[in-house]
Amino acid sequence: MRRLGSVQRKMPCVFVTEVKEEPSAKREHQPFKVLATETISHKALEADIYSAIPTEKVDGTCCYVTTYKGQPYLWARLDRKPNKLAEKRFKNFLHSKQNSKEFFWNVEEDFKPVPECWIPAKDIEQLNGNPMPDENGHIPGWVPVEKNNKQYCWHSSVVNYEFEIALVLKHHSDDPGLLEISAVPLSDLLEQTLELIGTNINGNPYGLGSKKHPLHLLIPHGAFQIRNLPILKHNDLLSWFEGCREGKIEGIVWHCNDGCLIKVHRHHLGLCWPIPDTYLNSKPVIINMNLDKYEYDFDAKCLFNYFSKIDNQKFGRLKDIVLSV
């Protein structure tokens, strides 16, 4: 199977969207909703959406694995955002009647500083060697997750740089109905993007861990392919999300043959998220760490140490894993 696309920028919706002047269910204090119409977008058709691979959109925070200091490293998403003056100028432009004109950014002066180790996301537009902002006025990018950086402590909990491994959740290779948590070499994940999920990420929609014993995991983008998705029509997708067990997910991401990624979120269809019983929590999960070669030389409080103690154990669902590190 071909490697699926990586998430390096904001994904467009599969349908043409429209703005409705009602409070958003997705973002607090946002006075409008962005809803899907019944028209498939030009971008989706251009990317040949009908031959794309549909996958589950997982609710977490985006990460990236690439080289840093000569070894594979986990990187956290950090968008470079405009300073106050530039943001005000950009918002005035968006609300003006002059949207036919192009907004001019001065990248060197209009944006807040970022750490020296920051890198721009791949495939974003460049002008005179400078990465340019997207339609929201942000420059997508990444910063390496250092071991002792408290800002990214939950990212750091799922990697071990001494042994160059990461805690990954995916389907079991021999049983698609079974999930597996394993220690994967970071070198196997190079140039891939993944979703970090868990106790302290996005309100923990999957109910993992607890405040006392938080649990976080990485899921490679495209890991959970969707079988038997209905025809690509607004009402059919709406019925699928509402009525099928497989539809109890945050959304769908289509991986197109040209590398383009197209999405639809439950909120685009006027549906709620998070929901009580997610599809991700409907499958059993097995622990398959295979850490013998590392001689279990891990910090007593780290997740790798905990999972090494319950290796080969099987749980009815993800949220049944109770940590006692």
UniProtKB/TrEMBL annotation:
Coiled coil: none annotated. It catalyses: ATP + (ribonucleotide)n-3'-hydroxyl + 5'-phospho-(ribonucleotide)m = (ribonucleotide)n+m + AMP + diphosphate. GO terms for molecular function: ATP binding; RNA ligase (ATP) activity. Functions as an RNA ligase, in vitro. The ligation reaction entails three nucleotidyl transfer steps. In the first step, the RNA ligase reacts with ATP in the absence of nucleic acid to form a covalent ligase-AMP intermediate and release pyrophosphate. In step 2, the ligase-AMP binds to the nucleic acid and transfers the adenylate to the 5'-PO4 terminus to form an adenylylated intermediate. In step 3, the RNA ligase directs the attack of the 3'-OH on the 5'-phosphoanhydride linkage, resulting in a repaired 3'-5' phosphodiester and release of AMP. GO terms for biological process: hematopoietic progenitor cell differentiation; response to reactive oxygen species; RNA repair. PANTHER family: CHROMOSOME 28 C12ORF29 HOMOLOG, RNA LIGASE 1. It comes from Catagonus wagneri (Chacoan peccary). Its cofactor is Mn(2+); Mg(2+). Pfam families: RLIG1. The keyword ATP-binding applies. Its EC number is 6.5.1.3. The keyword Cytoplasm does not apply. InterPro entries: RLIG1. This is RNA ligase 1. Keywords: ATP-binding, Ligase, Nucleotide-binding, RNA repair.
